[in-house]
Amino acid sequence: MSHSFSLISTLAIGFAIAWALGFLMERIKVPALVGYLLAGIIISPATPGFVGDVNIASELSEIGVMLLMFGVGLHFSMTDLIRVKNIAVPGAILQMGLATCLGAVLAHFWGWPWGQSIVFGMCLSCASTVVLLKGLESRGILESGDGQIAVGWLVVEDIMTVLILVLLPPLASLLGSPLQNTEASLPLWQIVGITLAQVFGFIILMLVVGKRLLPWLLRQVAKTGSRELFTLSVLVFAIGIAYGAAQIFHVSFALGAFFSGMVMRESRYSHRAAMESLPLRDAFSVIFFVGVGMMFDPNVLYEQPLHVLAVLAIIILGKGLVAFGLVLLFRYTLHTALTVAAALSQIGEFSFILAALGLQLKILPQEGMSLVLAGAIISIALNPFAFATVGPARDFIKKRWGFARRMDARIDPMALMPDSVGSDILHGHVVLVGYGEKGKIILEELLQRHLSVVVVDDHHSVIEELRERNVNSIYGDATDPAVLIQAHIHEAAILVLAIENEILCRKIVETAKILRPTIETVMPAENEEDAKALKADGVAQAFVPDELLAQAIVQFTMSRFGKESEDQKIREEEAEERKAVERGAL
């Protein structure tokens, strides 16, 4: 086939084989991504038959990473990142450091120089963004407390990896590179300072300028009524900003796209942007896995099987145990520790980039690249199974480890309703699940209307903040009956869901109606059709998200309490009192 058609042939044959193998994997209850990886191996240069264009697949994979990170940014606000900073920042730094040490010691044991060993260890320290997000999304926990910790952890890892990528060339000579590098003449403190200035300069620009400019631009495009132009705008913001960030500020494509989506979250059209980019994200994520498979040389499996097993032990067991221990050290639950450990026990795209740079600088042997790819592919293929073992592992650990049983038996004070809360307050009240941007507005509106509210949220810091304000609140997962019982759902009048995840909302409503069959529920919906379906199914009264969503939910809630007229009367009385005081003062 003519070389000019390499893009079409790579996509056509790659997609066809990935579809067939993905379908087969799903039929035998194996994750589809395993089929995508096998498809990449089949069309790789290491296997006979058709050979795809590795360079094209690699570039298309980068687009997939950009679109995926843009979508994550649309659902992950800076507030969410700040909430988990106490565990994500130290946890990510410590885990990367320990994983690097393990990899470096292993490679030095094989006889590699320390410079090569350190670079190899760094390649094993950073998890795959794509794999982590796919794993969390497939289990519906991306927006949960555990999911936010894992994503925040990975964002910190990405930032650290960006620093490594920028610092590696000027430090190559210190690591044993035979190449001459003019940047090495700069002092180390100056190199680090420039790098930090570039990264934080981009972040500040996005949070200050982008936060105002991008939502405004998207609103102007939406006013034209053109769906194609709206989709094109999403692609421009996702890919264009990521590319500009890499060229101007020298940050990664993934980090640039993530912050682009995060500031786009401020727009009322953020949900539409997420839906428009979803098909493209899915398609390019398949290309990512196919591209990874194309870079793999199967010969390493039988030429150096013990080396591959040792690398896998560091990636899956070493990194997993380090993450597990650190999460427990920060006094999070056993389930959270296992979930984060499973999410991070793999490596991916940043490992390939680091390994490729190491090869280019001649501070990593070709053998190192092959082992990194082998470890990445096998750990990615095994990662869904790691998630599947979270539940059984939790039960096994509790059964065999007394400390785990005591930890689970120890009840978090934030998960209990304080004894000081009177029974009159916990009768006929509102249970509000979720304290995000919409939840804050709803709570303030209900409190101003003198309504009794109990907030349920799975972020510990949120509940601490609410307790300091003397707001009745419970820490925990609202799908857990014990959490809703602590919120006195059996005596509540209405359940308000301020989370925009229909699957999670349905689970919460199902649990709530078991405890109180007559409770009335209010929740958001993606669109008018979903809202009608939720109402027809008897699940909840649903409202389509927009800038007036919180007020609409509040008005509906107040109408069910019959408090609209009473609330209006109170406001009128307060206004009359103020006028009387003013007349007296005159």
UniProtKB/TrEMBL annotation:
- Localization (cell): Membrane
Keyword field contains Protein transport: no
Record has Transmembrane as a keyword: yes
Q: Gene3D superfamilies per the record? A: 1.20.1530.20, NAD(P)-binding Rossmann-like Domain
What is the membrane topology here?
A: Multi-pass membrane protein
Q: Which InterPro entries match?
A: Cation/H_exchanger_TM, Na+/solute_symporter_sf, NAD(P)-bd_dom_sf, RCK_N
In this chain the RCK N-terminal domain maps to 427-545
Q: Which UniProt keywords apply?
A: Membrane, Transmembrane, Transmembrane helix, Transport
Checking SUPFAM superfamilies in the record gives: NAD(P)-binding Rossmann-fold domains
- Offer one example of a GO biological process linked to this entry: potassium ion transport
Molecular function via GO: antiporter activity
Where are the bilayer-spanning segments?
6-25, 32-51, 63-81, 93-112, 118-136, 148-168, 188-209, 229-258, 308-330, 336-359, 371-390
Q: What is its main location?
A: membrane
Note down the stretches annotated as region Disordered: 562-586
- Write out the GO cellular component annotations: membrane
User: Per the similarity annotation, which family is this?
Assistant: Belongs to the monovalent cation:proton antiporter 2 (CPA2) transporter (TC 2.A.37) family.
- The name on file for this protein is Transporter, CPA2 family
The organism is Parasutterella excrementihominis YIT 11859
